[in-house]
């Protein structure tokens, strides 16, 4: 465990209490540090959310959820969470520090475990999981990475970041959460998790412990998800013939495709696992080597009052062989006769002790400082090349020259990325080892993929060395075709300009067009809402207005369209009330000028020329009377339409 070079948090005092000492691990959501709780003077693990996620309420909520879920559990097999808070812009959790390794690291080092080891680890995990299920908590992210094996033998479950209250209908949301290799069929197909989903994940872990591999494999995550949803998990013995039939049955029960066919919760599986362990232990005793028989003590054979009896040796059948009685002589004679025998036995015992001690010392030297000794490769990641060479040489290894250089986005130039063989590997003393040293991040340039189909854009970005996230954002756009890229974003969600300088290994994500917003003018309200729903939008009628062209109950258009519209948004609709009909005033007998004023006041238009030969010039005299209008007075017409005046002359 070494400090991360250049990490600004190393040495920092978090919230006036936790002094950060070194970095333990880094994940996609947070980094875990070793720290000292200065108030209680103890080592703790502090999990600090990445700064660029500070504005994401979903990640913050997941942090708080982890603290609340774990805090409700007080069990020897669950990692304790001591504290949770906010320091500067980052949320943090303070957890129990457990020096050791994860189950994932154990599997990487040893491959398949024995049935006894699998049962021991499974029992500990199920005991902690039982406490969670009893408290109404579903873990939802059970995997070997979240099972901690402490140096002192304790086994604990950690990382309740995806935990939720258990119910028959606990859903994961719009996207699958958890690790795909351990997701149950119902999580993949329906997005629903309960206690039996944790049982399925534990069954997959037991399969992996017994066989050294996962039951389903694929080049893409969706291939693995499809197998979980449609195929049954095979028996572990089909991969490892040494797996007992009892453990086959236990794994197949836990990984049944139908939740109803699995154990109801961790307690039910724990009871069966313990029964299976007892059954296997009995079977091993019955069929294995016989136990050592303890002979009764010498006091059992009481001497007679008349004379000393010689106990005959046991035959192979366990019966005493017959022996003639012997005359022991006087007590003094017995002691004289026994003295040389005792002396010889003492000398022989002393020689045996000296020989065993010598062999033990020789063996200790041979397997420690001697040629037969082994060395565990120390962890030197992040150290300078000179420091790493000194550490490895002091450990009894030979460091090859020159070191191998590699680009690294995370390790600064001149510092060690890893060793070959890896840290933790047991090697013979004076074995050769290679240092892989960072030469810094490899520069690259962001290609212009705007308007390019998503698959082609991903290929271009990956060729340029970028790590493109599987998840992408979507947005409506009338200029960029559906399925083509609108923008490339960095890990913080900020858009990146084409041609910008960057480094290989930089994570990016895509903003992809889903085409133009649907055209809904002239559709009925119901049809418009259905069309919007088909495209992932919601339509809500916000106003109803008269419209001479759109029928009553149909949509005129959108009330106001935001600059950015994404699937899941809501758009306001303007619905038509049909034409605005108004009754035409009766202006018969009125002068032309009065008639025009009345009609226009009612919302109608009058033509420039009357239906007579009288020019407009004479209208202002008001001497001409109105004979009728077309349409006639009293009839209804659309507001704003033209009414023709017919004058008398």
Automatic annotation (TrEMBL):
Pfam families to which the protein is assigned, alphabetical: PASTA (PF03793), Pkinase (PF00069)
Keyword Transmembrane annotated: yes
Transmembrane segments annotated in the record for this chain: 346-367
Organism domain of life: Bacteria
UniProt KW keywords: ATP-binding, Kinase, Membrane, Nucleotide-binding, Serine/threonine-protein kinase, Transferase, Transmembrane, Transmembrane helix
Protein's organism: Microcella putealis
Domain Protein kinase residues, every copy: 18-274
PANTHER family, per the entry: MITOGEN-ACTIVATED PROTEIN KINASE KINASE KINASE 20-RELATED, SERINE_THREONINE-PROTEIN KINASE YBDM-RELATED
GO biological process entries: negative regulation of fatty acid biosynthetic process
Record-linked InterPro entries: Kinase-like_dom_sf, PASTA_dom, Prot_kinase_dom, Ser/Thr_kinase_AS
Catalytic activity: L-seryl-[protein] + ATP = O-phospho-L-seryl-[protein] + ADP + H(+); L-threonyl-[protein] + ATP = O-phospho-L-threonyl-[protein] + ADP + H(+)
Residues in PASTA domain copies: 373-439, 440-514, 578-648
Entry keyword annotation includes Kinase: yes
Uppermost EC category: transferase
A molecular-function term among this protein's GO annotations: ATP binding
Protein name, per record: non-specific serine/threonine protein kinase
E.C. number: 2.7.11.1
């Amino acid at each position: 465990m070494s400090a991360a070079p250049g990490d600004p948090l190393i040495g920092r005092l978090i919230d006036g209490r936790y002094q950060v000492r070194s970095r333990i691990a880094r994940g996609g959501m947070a980094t875990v540090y070793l720290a000292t709780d200065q108030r209680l003077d103890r080592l703790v693990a502090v999990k600090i959310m990445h700064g660029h996620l500070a504005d994401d309420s979903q990640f913050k909520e997941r942090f708080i959820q982890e603290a609340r879920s774990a805090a409700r559990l007080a069990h020897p097999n669950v990692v304790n969470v001591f504290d949770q808070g906010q320091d500067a812009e980052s949320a943090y959790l303070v957890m129990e520090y457990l020096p050791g390794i994860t189950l994932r690291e154990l599997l990487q080092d040893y491959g398949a475990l024995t049935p006894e080891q699998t049962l021991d680890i499974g029992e500990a995990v199920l005991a902690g999981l039982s406490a969670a299920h009893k408290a109404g908590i579903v873990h939802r992210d059970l995997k070997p990475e979240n099972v901690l094996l402490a140096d002192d033998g304790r086994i604990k479950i950690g990382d309740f970041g995806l935990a939720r209250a258990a119910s028959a209908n606990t859903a994961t949301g719009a996207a699958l959460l958890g690790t795909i290799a351990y997701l149950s069929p119902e999580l993949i197909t329906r997005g629903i998790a309960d206690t039996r989903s944790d049982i399925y994940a534990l069954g997959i872990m037991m399969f992996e412990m017994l066989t050294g591999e996962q039951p389903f494999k694929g080049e893409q995550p969706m291939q693995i998800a499809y197998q979980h949803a449609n195929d049954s998990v095979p028996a572990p013995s089909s991969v490892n013939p040494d797996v007992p039939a009892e453990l086959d049955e236990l794994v197949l029960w836990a990984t049944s495709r139908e939740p109803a066919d699995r154990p109801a919760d961790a307690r039910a599986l724990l009871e069966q696992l313990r029964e299976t362990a007892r059954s296997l232990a009995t079977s091993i005793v019955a069929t294995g080597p016989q136990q050592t028989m303890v002979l009764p003590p010498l006091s059992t054979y009481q001497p007679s009052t008349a004379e000393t009896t010689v106990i005959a040796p046991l035959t192979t059948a366990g019966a005493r062989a017959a022996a003639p009685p012997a005359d022991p002589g006087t007590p003094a004679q017995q002691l004289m006769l026994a003295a040389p025998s005792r002396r010889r036995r003492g000398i022989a015992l002393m020689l045996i002790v000296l020989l065993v001690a010598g062999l033990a010392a020789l063996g200790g030297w041979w397997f420690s400082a001697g040629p037969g000794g082994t060395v565990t490769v120390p962890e030197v990641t992040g150290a300078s090349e000179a420091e790493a060479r000194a550490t490895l040489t002091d450990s009894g290894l030979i460091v090859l020259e020159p070191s191998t250089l590699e680009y690294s986005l995370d390790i600064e130039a001149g510092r060690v990325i890893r060793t070959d063989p890896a840290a933790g590997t047991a090697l013979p003393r004076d074995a050769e080892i290679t240092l892989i040293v960072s030469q810094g991040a490899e520069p690259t340039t962001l290609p212009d993929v705007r308007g390019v189909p998503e698959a082609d854009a991903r290929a271009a970005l990956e060729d340029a060395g970028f790590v493109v996230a599987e998840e992408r954002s979507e947005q409506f756009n009338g200029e960029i075709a559906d399925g083509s890229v609108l923008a490339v974003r960095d890990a913080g969600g900020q858009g990146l300009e084409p041609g910008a300088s960057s480094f290989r290994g930089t994570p990016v994500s895509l903003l992809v067009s889903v085409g133009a917003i649907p055209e809904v003018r002239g559709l009925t309200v119901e049809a418009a809402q259905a069309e919007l729903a088909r495209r992932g939008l919601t339509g809500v009628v916000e106003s109803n207005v008269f419209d001479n062209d759109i029928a009553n109950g149909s949509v005129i258009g959108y009330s106001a369209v935001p600059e950015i519209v994404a699937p899941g948004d809501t758009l306001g609709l303007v619905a038509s009330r049909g034409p605005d009909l108004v009754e035409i005033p009766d202006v018969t007998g009125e002068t032309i000028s009065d008639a025009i004023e009345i009609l226009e006041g009612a919302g109608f238009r009058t033509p420039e020329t009357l239906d007579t030969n009288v020019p407009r010039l004479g209208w202002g005299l008001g001497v001409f009377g109105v004979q009728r209008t077309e349409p006639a007075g009293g009839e209804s017409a659309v507001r704003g339409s033209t009414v023709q005046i017919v004058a008398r002359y």
